[in-house]
Input
Amino acid sequence: MQPNFSIQGKVAIVTGASKGIGYGLAKALAAAGAKVAVTARSRSSLDALVAEIAAEGGEASAYELDVRDVAAIRTVFEQVASDYGRLDIVVNNAGLGEGMAALDVTEEYWDDMIDVNLKGVFFCCQAAGRIMLEQGYGKIVNVSSQVSVVGIPDGVAYCASKGGVNQLTKVLALEWSGRGICINAVGPTFIYTPGTAERLDTPEFRDQVLARIPAGRIGTINDVAGAVVYLSSPASDLVTGTLLLVDGGWTAQ
Output
């Protein structure tokens, strides 16, 4: 018997899908055969993504969701499950990433970072878990970061939030894995996206990053997508409660 990497016909939710990594992950899941429900704070911001997926022969639909709104999370997840008849895959990608020196961190900045990157991820997991546990099957993939296990300057709130994502992933795996749910996290290094291009196109900054990556290159969205599709497929059925680092060796040092 060969490993089964197929997600054909599976129903997936991707949060924070209007741009960057989330946009690419939604496209990758759709290209692999999943029916993808994409979410963002503005539904209209998802129009281009839904159209692009359809033009490439895939199936996608858009839902408005601010992951800071816990009641809305449950409503949207239940709506997706109702619309499609089930929910097989959830990719918790929505997040904030702006850095700030520790002495400059305000309460508002801290709360925003934690509300989106940690609280939002947990309550999305909870909403998914309620549906998937009833089904007896599901795959949850949380987008963490390499800096969930190593520190970077000006990243105190971001690093803390992503470290928390790793821990909640482990605990939920302990609670749910015996009931058919696999829950894991992926930890990307610096990924080239429209949002990171300005910094990564700056020679000095780019050189600093490359000096820390033994693989010798900046990450791409496809690098992350490969890990997410794998963790969404039956091939990873014995993989749960873990962090899959997509970091070119950054954290091996």
Summary: The chain has eight helices and seven strands.
